[in-house]
Every structure is written in structure tokens, then in C-alpha cells.
Amino acid sequence: MRRGKGLIALVLASLLTACVTSPTGRSQLMLVSDAQISQMGVAAFDQLKKETPLSGDARTNRYVSCVADALIDAMPAEQTGGWEVRVFEQESANAFALPGRKIGIHTGLLEVAVNDAQLAAVIGHEIGHVLAQHSAERMSLQYAAQGGGALLAILLGEATQEKGLLLAALGLGAQYGVLLPYSRIQESEADGIGLELMARAGFDPAEAVALWRNMSAQGGDQPPEFLSTHPSHATRIADLQRQLAQVQPLHERARAEGRRPSCQR
Q1: Less CB within 10 Å around the terminal CB: N or C of the chain?
Q2: What DSSP line would sit under 7-66, residue for residue?
Q3: Which residue among 126, 187, 196, 207 is the active-site one?
Q4: SS3 of 104, please?
């Protein structure tokens, strides 16, 4: 009995020492190291490039890279190096960013994000997930809930059935048919980080609101907000509108400093 209590205390101590703070000041459980999660992100991205056709259109690739580069240049110096940006020939209006500094854009997104600032809003949001370590946080919560054995097997390459969950935790659930969406808190956090990042890069942050109106106009069945882990389009738009006043000075300062991206599709 005493031994059991000691083990519980040790586990609790480990969980407490694994807490970190997100860019917005939120406490996060982090049981996966930066090196581990980056390695997983790179491996998943390499796998995706082998399984999904890449766009060979030079103009589209230049356009997407122009937007992504402007956002990357606006980040702190220690976060700017080594990013890889790829465009995938996929009809879905989707994008993702992975630990290990990987960014993927589906060609279908370019029909919804109709200008460079709207595309910046999407890419900024996805980068926000990476900067806030949301993939590592989700994986850590799984680790804590299910025990370390399954995750350890994945890390060692000994598990196959669980790899779908790992890919979903990284943010690739839609690509691999595994439903493990980001939480509402993480989605809202990524929205805020992305909005600030696009403003610092010189893109008009108001275009983030226009983007989600475009998304809403696409139609389709969206579950009621209380049944979904994602904010509804209306809530997302309202939250972004409230934050515009906070980031507008960042946009004005960026423009005054010469950050005036003009990426042509």
C-alpha cells in the first residue's frame, strides 16, 4: 500500500513538473519533448509527400511561398529558420502546419482564401498551432490518459494501429481519416496567434474575418457548436472581430517599417 502511494506521488510529481505555459499564458501538460514531436512531424510530412500528389504549378507554389515567407519573417529570429512549404493537389479547402517546421496547403483552399491576406490568415492560424505546441499537448494528454506504453511503442516504431492516432494528434487527422480535432481552446488560441502574426507581417488582419465569412458561405453541414470541438463560424468571426482593435496597431507599425507583402497569384 505504501509502495502504491509512493508510485502515485511520483506520477503526480512528474505531471506537475511537465506543465508549461502557452504563448497566451495557458497552462499545458507537456510530456513529449520538442525533439520527439519535431521528429514525428518531419516523418509524417515526408510520408504525406509520398502519398499525396504535389502541385507542379510554379506560379501557385511561388504565391503560397510568398505568403508563408512573409509570415515566417515576422516571427522571432529563433523561429524563422528551416521551414518547408509544400502545395498539395487536393480539392479540399485545407491547410496544416506540423512540428518540425512543415507547412502544407491544399490547392482547394485557394478557391476560398481569395487573396494573399486571407491565405495568410489560414497559414498564420496553422503556424499558431505549432508555436503553441498543440500537437505535443494533445499527445501528452493521450499519454497521461492511456499510460505510456502505447505512446512508447509508437515512438519506437513498434505499433501500427496507433499510428493513425499519432498522425491525427499531429494535425493530420483529415488526411488519414482519423477524427481527433483540436479543442475549442486550442482553435481559439491558434486564431489569436495567427491574427497577431499576420498583422506583424503586414497583412490586413481584417481579412481573417472575411476569410471565415467565405468559409461559412461554402455551406455544408456544420454541427451545432455544443456538439463540436471547434468554435462555430459565427463565434469564430465574433472573436476575431473583438481582437482586431488589439492587433491593428501591430499592422500599422509593420506597414510603417516597410512590411508590405504583395503576393500575386
Answers
A1: N
A2: HHHHHHHHHHHTEEE-TTS-EEE--S-HHHHHHHHHHHHHHHHHHSPBP--HHHHHHHHH
A3: 126
A4: strand
d(CA 138, CA 115) in angstroms, rounded, equals: 32
Sign (positive/negative) of CA torsion 39, 40, 42, 46? positive
Supply 165's cell numbers. Answer: 492516432
Closest CA to 194 of 205, 202, 183, 185: 205
Contact between 52 and 254 (Cβ < 8 Å): no
In a structure prediction context, what are the per-residue pLDDT tens digits for the chain, which is 265 residues long? 444 444 333 333 344 446 667 666 777 777 777 888 888 889 889 988 999 999 999 999 999 999 999 999 999 999 999 999 999 999 989 899 999 999 999 999 999 999 999 999 999 999 999 998 888 888 777 666 555 555 545 544 544 444 555 665 666 654 444 445 567 788 889 999 999 999 999 999 999 999 999 988 876 555 555 445 567 788 888 999 999 999 999 999 999 999 999 999 8
CA-closest candidate to residue 94, choices 181, 221, 196, 206: 181
Yes or no: say if 80 and 73 are a contact pair by the CB < 8 Å rule.
Answer: yes
Residue among 163, 142, 139, 140 at smallest CA distance from 153 = 163
The cell numbers describing 99, all together, are: 512540428
User: Rounded distance, CA 95 to CA 175, Å?
Assistant: 10
Domain boundaries, the chain: 23-256
Interhelix angle for 184-200 vs 134-146, to 10°? Answer: 160
